[in-house]
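Build the 3D complex.
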Amino acid sequence: MMKYLLIGNPNVGKSSLFNTITNSYAHVGNWSGVTVQQTIGEISGTGELIDLPGTYGVSPSSEDEGLVTHVLLNEHYNSVINIVDSTHLKRNLHLTIQLLELGVPTFLVLNMIDELKRSGLDIDIDKMSEILGVDIYPISVKDEIGIDELKEGLTNIKARNPLRIFYGKIIDDAIDEIKLLLRTEVLHVKKCWLAIQLLEGNEKVFDYLEINNKEKIRQIIAETEQKIIKNQEASSLKGAIFMARRRFINNLLFECVIQVSEKDHVKYFNRKIDKIVTNPVLGILSFFMVMFLVYFLTFDLIGASLSDLVEYIIFDKISPMLSETLPGLGISSHILKLITDGIIAGVGGVLIFVPQVMTLFFLLAILEGTGYMARVAIMMDHLLSRFGLNGKSIVPMITGLGCNVPAILATKTIPNKHEKILTILIIPFMSCSARIPIYALIANLLFDKYVSLIIMGMYVLGFIIALISAKLFSVSILKNTQNNFVLEIPPYRVPHWKNVWRQSKLYTRGFIENAGKYIFFGAILFWFLQYIGPGGVAVDSDESILALISGWIAPIFTPLGFGSWQATSSIIGGFLAKEFLAASMLILYGGEQAIVSSFTTASAISFIVFSLLYIPCLATVGVIKSETKSWKWTLFSIMYSFTVAYLISFIFYHVVNLFL
Amino acid sequence: MNITDLEINRKAKIINMDLIEESFRHRLMDMGISLYSDVELIKIISFGKMYLIEVDDVELCIRRDTAEKIIVE
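Done.
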């Protein structure tokens, strides 16, 4: 089975190519400790294709977190497929050169050849192929040109010589020196390539070398940089390498790119559409309209209906069916309860989210595919950057108003790791729709005339706390270099449907597999705690272990005004799913009257505020873990939100008490 | 003169980027913004905070404070 690596810049149609030449059995591969992923698919009859994250160069970057270097050095593969955007060769070829210097069998695929021709240019493929020493395939995935030739060509994997560029005497000498040092290492990658990568600053390569040589190599690198600067060739070693490559590329393009006709270069930043989209007033307005539409389709129309359907099938059909048939098979009533109230509840708890998650991903993928999201990120950036956030954080944040779970999954689009974690930490403060029942319950019972005001107040409070937290984190534990924003503007285009569909499927599957397991086991555990008590099994709720635990914990909440075991139990239940808060309160207090008499104005406000802010629900915790891949951040999120909730509720309780 | 001093559609060449800190400078380099690149200012948006520029045929958007640090002629 031949193994091909698919490598290229972001935005060159890599995913589209992947989807076009592989069949539908793709799956996602994860590399431990990083949040990027590789997608692996099968080219029927030929082999396996591994799609690596888009990256501008081989050196580790926020886009790939070092995955490309890791794979090139560690994985066994037979060939590299480098896809480039023919209309932007000047920039794309930098990565190409780094790949060609490896000397492994490579296929150079020039995508968007139709657009190139439309702009009046053409490429002398034979000449370019000769200069670069690699087979070249001009294609257009969009217009389906050249795909068959490529598929056929892929079956013919040929050895080739590494590309050699003149980097100037100083650097070339340094390359030789490093090669000499490396001769004792056991490596299956060309030493020349390693030397160039090391000089370029690829830290990841150092991880694979023996310790003895590292010091000496670093010394050579430092000395070489000094020489370059002294000689005024460039202001840094990387700069010198970059410029040598650029000279090579300019010469290559001069030789191989032919001007067939004079045509104007169409800018991606569309004068007409973008004038509206990026206009401060109209832009934000149209953005909110778009988000409202997405929100409506996801949580109201499609998502909700499908969720209801799933709920109906599981709880109204499957569950009763099991209750009827299983006893007949001799299953004890306890196991039956475990299955229906524990396992089914658990599985149902996961599956209920699936339609919404999938719909949301589908719609967001469409928006991303059209190029609209890049404009949004630009517009929002100057506002959000004041709080240490990225312009791209706006979409996950707004999504969080519907449900935190897909919102956190949507942070996949934030390339910078710190900004991504920052966004994930503040999303739980965005008041999700599951909290509405508890606001409504308390507000209606105790604040009759001010219900909408209170509920709106909760949304605003959540948003404010989110922004303040972001600012706090960005100057302390998640410090980030301020000026890190640079975004490439993609053209507006019709999204590739196969891509959109594949992406939604892939992410949804990831959700079910990762977050799913936490929700599942959590639900079973919770069921267990309220099923068993010191008095035996299948006890009344107020004699269960859960009630016992709640009783012990309740005093913590006395300073906040609601130190009862019922409120505490509900809060614990609310961890499982925020919707349970309201339901539990009614059940455990035994009715509305009891609630009214147990809460004062101050304690009611403090309770609502606490419900808004305290720890994310179990499902959310599940996705936080799967998106950050870190228990540290997950636990931090839980503790931080609990602390914030406690403090703010405390303040509200006592301040309100003072005034009333 | 830096990028913020350019007029719309005016072309220039980047002659110095040392004011930008090294790791970000390398990132910009990866994306195509480097010494001796041709740069053209396309538009200024978000109340003067975001600069849309075209560098070597690639359209990019950067913040104003970054634009101020890219010296051109």
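Chain B has a mean pLDDT of 86.
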